[in-house]
What we know:
Elements: H1 2-24, H2 32-48, E1 72-74, E2 84-85, H3 88-101, E3 110-116, E4 119-126, E5 129-135, E6 141-143, H4 146-149, E7 168-176, H5 179-191, H6 200-208, H7 213-217, E8 222-232, H8 235-244, H9 248-256, E9 258-260, E10 266-268, H10 271-280, E11 290-292, H11 295-308, E12 316-323, H12 326-332, E13 342-346, E14 351-363, E15 369-380, E16 383-389, H13 393-399, E17 406-410, E18 418-424, E19 444-445, E20 455-456, H14 462-473, H15 485-493, H16 508-512, H17 519-532, H18 537-543, H19 551-561, H20 564-569, H21 572-576, H22 583-593, H23 596-607, E21 628-632, H24 640-649, E22 653-655, E23 664-667, H25 673-681, E24 684-686, H26 688-694
Parallel strand pairs: 2-13, 21-22, 21-23, 23-24
Antiparallel strand pairs: 1-6, 3-11, 3-12, 4-5, 4-7, 7-8, 9-10, 12-13, 14-15, 14-17, 15-16, 17-18, 19-20
Amino acid sequence: MNDVKKRIDDLRKEIEKHNDLYYQKSAPIISDSQYDVLVKELEKLEKDYPEFASKDSPVRKVAGVASSSFAQVKHCVSMLSLDNSYSKEDILKWYERTVRNLGQKKDLNFIIEPKTDGLSVSLVYKKGILETAATRGDGETGEDITENIKTVFDIPHKLSSWIKDADLFDLRGEVYMDKKDFDTINEEIEKSSGQKFANPRNAASGSLRQKNPQITAKRKLKFLVHTFGKIQFYREFILNSKKEKSNDLLNVSSKYGLQIRENGDCFFAEQIQFLEFCRYSGFKLQNGICLCKTYNEILDVIENMTQNREDFAYEIDGLVIKVNQQSYQAQLGNTNKSPRWAIAYKFPAKQALTKIKEIRTQIGRTGVVTPSAVLEPVALSGVTITHATLHNFDEIERLNVNEGDEVLIERAGEVIPKILKVVKKNSGGYFKPPQFCPSCNSKIIKENEQEVAYRCINPECPAQFRRHLIHFVSRNAMDIDGFGDVVIDQLLSKKKLKILADIYALTFDDFFELELFGQKKADNLIDAINASKSRPLNKVLFALGIRHVGQKAAEVLAKRFKNMDALFNAGIDDFLKINEVGETIAQSVTDFFSEPEVRATVDALISAGVNMTEPDSDLEGSQFEGMAFVLTGELSKWTREEAAEIIKARGGKVISAVSKKIDFVLAGENPGQKIDKAKELGVKIINENEFENMI
Ligand code: IVH
């Protein structure tokens, strides 16, 4: 008995620890399915030994607490969680219980929605204006993240339609990050040697709980609606609407099944109608929402969606099955923790056990040594896995992993899985970075202690040159179609490529004699090489592979400096003047352009006929042709002067007074009287984010 009590206590502590890591630190150290195993075990023990059950147990509370670094917001209605299920049997039990509890209703149906793996937020609109946004926190009180939420593009700040008359509209949904944006952010973090996010959910959570909303704004977060807490109208408003009959509210009520109680509380006849109403009000709905009637139909959807889970642009970790009719939902009610009218079906874990055959090291374009694991093949969510990423040597040390160890791997969205932990150690210690470059035998070093990366710093390292060639010709760089790794490897072995500019000296015969090349393919490749000579400067800059300069930074630099000479002549201060350029990029670009080898590389490319200028974009000059703007309030992304420059560069005019002739009022913080005048005249008012999107 004491053992059981001890296990229960240990499990509670363990679960609380993981709750803290997940909800507060956005840095979990175990996967969701490992967490769920702990919760299930605790639930079972508390059920079998009710004498040890406690009201405070993490299985009875909504996990998470409102962190102290944000103001706290009390939710008007608790934000609950969902019960999880992992098998068809669990779903069958829930289905039968639901049908039984409702007394075999003939019209009962279910809605199945993908379960977005993000974080739950409540958006409170009053009279149609977004007033507060909060995280779920402990379900009763969350963190005030209003300013950060306002940077999420999918979330309207102002609602039109009849809902703007609602005294209170507490809408709930999931903030999430697309898988591709997650990869981009992690690449950027990696370049600046920061701590990467473990998965898109943590990236979304970490981005949303930033102290600086400008950082959140850059993270491309998105929002999907799933429920509402409360919708309420003033009693007088309802009575008037009923009297007037013609009111928009009444029209909408029939279309979306809106039901307004005497006390002003609103419901929808069906969840699907509520979602459709949200779409009508300017929110996005996710794909893959289905309606079902029978258990077999539910199973079909589960099977289908389990197969297709990777088709979503964002991570879904399961499905949510809900009773569709809101009157039946009300009849079923909630427990302390979760509604009885809904259940989450969690997809099977994408984890497997295998053994590390070998740890390989690869030299990247910038000389970074990247380890990866070769695995004993193992089947995982329908594919055979033979490799896993290991990111860097800090990760290897943290995992204490080495060749021969048995490991748990997980595939979360990305194609190549990662190693979660060592389950059986068959070797001593962890795998150490090589001392010498496997390609050129130069010494491998860590440039400074803050850096995670180990590098080969030999500028003539053949492995680096090979990676640089691959990057140079790639789609987002010089975009030379058909110039793949296989072609590069053959040309390298024939010693046809010694410097980048050699690409432009290649002849038809050089290609024609390669394996699998015919006349047409050789001709096409020569054409593609010639076409690449006229790429704009931003592509050339990206192709040159300047450390920390991604596509975006290359575009910004090219737009500002217009030609390569201007970049060679610029100093660090010139780079720092650019809004989008921080110290790391400015330093890296300055160092790059002061290297004599870079001058030689660029000169050789110029001699080969490669363009080194950036054309004026079409948008510049014409986008705001004939339009007039008024600027008011404090802008955070630009000074007023900079914003005016942007408008003028696109052909627009900036005027000081608001009149009917003005097309847009761009309003920042504390906008003053101009905004009132604009409202009075019906002139369109835009905020900084809207302006940024326009440009
Ligand atoms: S309905 C009372 N629908 O999953 C809570 N939740 O694990 C009803 N989630 O807290 C929520 N997608 O943050 C619902 N389509 C969906 C969802 C969804 C993701 C989240 C939500 C919830 C958590 C529970």
